[in-house]
Amino acid sequence: MRAHEAGWAHAEGARRPTWLQVPGDVNALVPHLWSATTRKVDGVLEVGGVRVTDLVAEHGSPAYVLDEVDFRQRAAAFRDAFADYDVFYAGKAFLCTTVARWVAEEDLHLDVCSAGELTVALAAGFDPARIGYHGNNKTVPELARAVEVGVGRIVVDSFVEIERLAELAARADREVGVMVRVTAGVEAHTHEYIATAHEDQKFGFSITSGDALEAVRRVLAAAPVEGSGGLRLLGLHSHIGSQIFDSAGFEVAARRVLALHATVLRELGVEMPEMDLGGGFGIAYTTQDDPSTPARLAEEMTAIVDYECRALGLTAPRLSIEPGRAIVGPSMCTVYEVGTVKEVALDGGARRTYVSVDGGMSDNIRTALYDADYSCTVANRSSEAPPVLGRIVGKHCEAGDIVVKDEFVPADLRPGDLVAVPGTGAYCRSMASNYNHALRPPVIAVRDGVSRVVVRRETEDDLLRTDVGWSSPSQETDGTAADPAVAGR
Ligand SMILES: Cc1ncc(COP(=O)(O)O)c(C=O)c1O
Question: For residue 390, what is the domain's CATH number?
Fold first, then answer.
């Protein structure tokens, strides 16, 4: 469902939400919202030993600041806590070649869900055998490429895809590892999950309808024969949702998926060696969020699977998970410059300070898309002014262009100040757009006092590059300018 055009801005009671407390010190960071090396020195935000004021002076704003140490620590924490599992970093959260290399160096596998993500992974030299490939509508050329480069496992999502993949594997004379994406009838978001008998969504094969078992049958029917190419069934795959804090949803899903695993053994005589429980582990965006740790998650998930396997008399399959947000989310913050500050009177005499920054829904769509909550801090100075209720808004032509719905900011916040928003590593740059022909911001990695741009800021030339009505100065000199007739000039 699309959010209301003006969203919460027009909703009743546009005041602070109950979870948002007036801060004792408006300058202080809430440590667990920020990456490991973030701190304030004389009021200036520092990440990886680099002052964000220096970053903005050199690279401009807005900018995503990526804390390499934090990313690696979170990746390593999942790797170590889930030592008996295969941990796939979900590249959809954020992927560039540098991050793909960090993922490889931290000994994680990689989950991609598009040809573009696969291209980035391969460009980084990521071992294709350690890549899992998702998607509910992978095209034949995409599947052919995955087979050709030797992607380790392809997660199939429809009967026609099984057919296509079997044909491609046979033609290429390759054995292709396959997982079957199943819908366990569990939908989990934050602290809530819904378990239903029918699954009204585009992903996966329904367990209850029998489609999932039929998909397993068809994959098995396409097994390699006497050294020929074909599909090698690895196991079942289930992903139940996002930003989940509670293991209850995983428990219900694991029970249902393991029951199918047991049925496959009983009815088809096949013991599948693997099972994937997906991603979706929650992170803290604001003080209302209290995420788990990888160690606690590993303990809970392993206990659930062990218990169910014992009850079903199964040998536990090798498990894998696919965290994205929980690794990269807290590793990044976005730094904006304030352009205007406007006070707006609310009903009942309340006031809200609207702070316009130089980015918005083009670099962080999550607030408009998911009604997500964020927090922020002033990043260039400390303030003695009292806290006032603020809303950080972007510069786009939408009333719903809001970055941070509710946060206390110092009453003297002014144009030219910098505002930093934590927790923007996941699904911000990867979902960024050129809405209003905005230039997507750079990603700047910081570590040990050194910064390096890992994704550069887009330029106006980048915007015009795909516009065939435009010819660049270099095209004009080398004679490759667009045909004016075609371009409609
Ligand atoms: C199949 C699958 N695996 C993993 C993920 C990663 O989820 P998260 O970033 O919330 O951990 C997603 C996210 O949509 C997904 O669809």
Answer: 2.40.37.10
